[in-house]
Design brief:
Number of strands: 8
Strand content: 25-35%
Strand order of the largest sheet: 6-7-5-4-3-2-1-8
Number of domains: 1
CATH topology: Aminopeptidase
Largest sheet: 8 strands, mixed
Distance between the termini: 30 Å
Radius of gyration: 16 Å
Helix content: 25-40%
Order of helices and strands: EHHHEEEHEHEEHE
Shape: globular
CATH architecture: 3-Layer(aba) Sandwich
CATH superfamily: Gcn5-related N-acetyltransferase (GNAT)
Low-confidence stretches: 1-21, 203-211
Structural class: alpha+beta
C-alpha cells in the first residue's frame, strides 16, 4: 500500500490482554486524537519495517493527512475509557479514475490493547461503511514475512494476489511487500463512490463491547 502519499498496513503483534467487558466504541477521528494516533503509529516507523516511512511525521503533517483522507474516506478511532487505543482508515488505491472503486486500508492498535478484537471491529465498521459508499475492492500491502498480519487479514477474507520483490529499502535491508485483496461487492455498472464528507451520517458512533 505504498504510493506517493504513503499507505500503511496492520501491526498485529502480541499485546497485553485487557480485562473483560471494558466498554469501547468506534467514532470518526477528530483533531483532538491526532497526537495519540501518532504515538500509536510511530513505533512502526522507528522500530521495524511495517511502515516504509523513515521519519515520524510531525503532528501538523499527520493532522493534514487525516483531514485530507476524511474528505473522501472514513478514518475511525476506537476509544476505551476516553482513550484512543486504535484507528483504521481507507485511502485511494491509485489516482487514475478507473481505479476509483478500489481502496487501500490500514489499521493500528496500541501495543497494550492488541489481541482484544479491536482491529477486527475497526475493520468491520470500515468495510461496512466503504460498501455503502460504493467501494468494490479493498487492497492491503504487508511487509513480508508479516506472519501475524497475513493471518489476521486472511481471517478477514483477504486473498493473496502477488508480491513486490525488493520494493523497499529500510534499516539496511531490501524488503518484499505482499498484496492481498478483499472484494466487498460486485457491481456491473457502479455509480461513483460517494465521498465520505457527503456520506457521513449525523450519528457516527457505534457502541461496542470488547470480547
Amino acid at each position: 500500500m505504498r504510493d506517493a502519499q504513503e499507505k500503511y498496513h496492520v501491526p498485529y503483534t502480541e499485546g497485553q490482554k485487557m480485562p473483560n467487558k471494558q466498554e469501547g466504541f468506534i467514532r470518526d477521528a477528530e483533531t483532538r486524537d491526532i497526537e495519540k494516533m501518532l504515538k500509536i503509529y510511530a513505533p512502526f516507523i522507528t522500530d521495524n519495517a511495517t511502515s516504509f516511512e523513515l521519519v515520524v511525521p510531525t503532528i501538523e503533517e499527520f493532522r493534514d493527512r487525516v483531514l485530507m483522507t476524511q474528505k473522501k474516506f472514513p478514518w475511525f478511532v476506537y476509544e476505551v475509557n476516553s482513550e484512543v487505543v486504535g484507528y483504521a482508515y481507507a485511502s485511494e488505491h491509485r489516482s487514475r479514475c478507473a481505479y476509483g472503486w478500489s481502496v487501500e486500508t490500514s489499521v493500528y492498535v496500541d501495543a497494550n490493547y492488541q489481541r482484544n478484537g479491536i482491529a477486527r471491529k475497526l475493520y468491520a465498521e470500515l468495510f461496512s461503511t466503504l460498501k455503502k459508499q460504493g467501494a468494490v475492492n479493498v487492497f492491503v500491502g504487508i511487509t513480508l514475512p508479516g506472519t501475524k498480519s497475513v493471518g489476521f487479514h486472511e481471517s478477514m477474507g483477504f486473498e493473496p494476489i502477488g508480491i513486490y520483490k525488493g520494493v523497499g529499502y529500510k534499516f539496511g535491508n531490501w524488503h518484499d511487500v505482499g498484496w492481498w485483496q478483499l472484494v466487498l461487492q460486485k457491481l456491473d455498472s457502479p455509480s461513483s463512490v460517494i465521498a465520505y464528507s457527503e456520506f457521513r451520517p449525523e450519528n457516527v458512533y457505534s457502541e461496542l463491547l470488547l470480547d
